[in-house]
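Example for tutorial group B:
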């Protein structure tokens, strides 16, 4: 079976689905590895490193014509989808809940679609395959560095001959994987850190990192399934926003990571809350998307400075800005999932298996994932990963 690694075509995407280090592992399982020329350049993996590891470096045309399984980070571009043929399989972060039309297109071509963002994350044997978690870790780390770069003062307490600088007060909203990594990174930089999540169970995790947990009286337990927070009711959201505003105003930096799988991210920082923040404050909205984000006024991929001097960073695809680390982690995830599904040198699809039931989206000419199959082509919200990812 030939497994192929494409060069990502999405704008600004620097990750690669498989790093040279993983090639021998696949070859030892009897798989042949093809790598598109230049696939790893954005993450500083040259073609020569793949060749030395035992992969064949090929052109894009050769890759699509010869591959049995194609590994990708993001969804294939429309022109690449047209290259696919019946019997091939695509593994990647395909975001089928936001793009059911892609799933139907692949099914119509009799292409098997496997999406890592559908992995059942509560299964212990799936941990090595959990790309959402690995990429959220990278994103949480980078979000703090972005905030520190935009903040006009120091993060740590500094006592110098020129005077004393108090530590920055930083608040993380949403304390899943990305949020906890943000808390840990901000603490290492010396900030005074607080964290908030609608899941009470996260209090211990926040405090274990040396941060203060913010407890709201307006919203009760909102823990959902699979480690995510459930979607709040309209009344709960309004009460949450009102009580959070007072906490937000007392902080210099706010990082928001709260998201709900397959739906629009919740609005946590309102326009009024932004107006109450001091000039020079910084907000990093990790939930920024075309559908909206956690912060009023955030724009995906852009930095906005409000009239009262608050910098709002609409963070997008942060893992791609740390491409080597993110690719190393993703490569371990995707190769672990691939080898889990390979039997006797061939891809074996069995949707009765718990892992495959979550990740196999299309197979044998049909959309087989129930949640995706039930979506109209015009619906779907941004697949999320922050908070509770």
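The residue assignment follows.
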């Amino acid at each position: 079976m030939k497994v192929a690694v494409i060069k990502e075509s999405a704008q600004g995407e620097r990750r690669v689905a498989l790093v040279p280090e993983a090639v021998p592992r696949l070859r030892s399982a009897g798989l042949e590895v093809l790598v598109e020329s230049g696939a790893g350049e954005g993450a500083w993996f040259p073609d020569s490193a793949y060749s030395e590891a035992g992969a064949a470096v090929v052109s894009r045309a050769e890759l699509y014509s010869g591959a049995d399984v194609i590994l990708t980070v993001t969804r294939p571009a429309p022109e690449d989808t047209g290259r696919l043929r019946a019997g091939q399989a695509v593994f990647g972060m395909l975001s089928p809940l936001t793009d059911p039309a892609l799933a139907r297109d692949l099914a119509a071509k009799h292409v098997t679609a496997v999406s890592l963002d559908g992995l059942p994350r509560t299964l212990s044997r799936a941990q090595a395959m959990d790309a959402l978690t690995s990429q959220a870790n990278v994103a949480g780390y980078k979000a703090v560095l972005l905030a520190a770069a935009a903040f006009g003062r120091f993060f740590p307490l500094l006592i110098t001959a020129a005077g004393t600088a108090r530590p920055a007060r930083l608040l993380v909203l949403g304390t899943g994987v990305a949020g906890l990594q943000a808390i840990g990174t901000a603490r290492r930089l010396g900030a005074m850190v607080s964290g908030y999540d609608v899941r009470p169970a996260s209090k211990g995790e926040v405090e274990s990192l040396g941060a203060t947990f913010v407890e709201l009286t307006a919203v009760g337990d909102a823990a959902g399934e699979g480690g995510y927070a459930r979607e709040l009711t309209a009344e709960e959201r309004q009460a949450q926003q009102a009580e959070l505003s007072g906490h937000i105003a007392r902080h210099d930096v706010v990082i928001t990571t709260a998201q709900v799988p397959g739906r629009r991210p919740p609005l946590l920082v309102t326009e009024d809350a932004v107006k109450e923040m001091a000039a020079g404050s910084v907000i990093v909205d990790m939930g920024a998307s075309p559908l909206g984000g956690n912060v009023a006024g955030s724009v995906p991929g852009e930095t906005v400075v409000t009239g009262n001097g608050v910098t709002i960073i609409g963070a997008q695809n942060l893992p791609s800005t740390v491409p080597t680390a993110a690719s190393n982690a993703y490569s371990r995830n995707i190769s672990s999932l691939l080898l889990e599904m390979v039997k006797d040198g061939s891809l074996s699809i069995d949707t009765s298996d718990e892992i495959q039931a979550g990740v196999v989206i299309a197979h044998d000419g049909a959309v087989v994932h129930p949640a995706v199959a039930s979506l109209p082509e015009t619906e779907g919200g941004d697949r999320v990963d922050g908070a509770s990812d």
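The radius of gyration is 22 Å. Compare this with the pattern of hydrophobic and polar residues in the output above.
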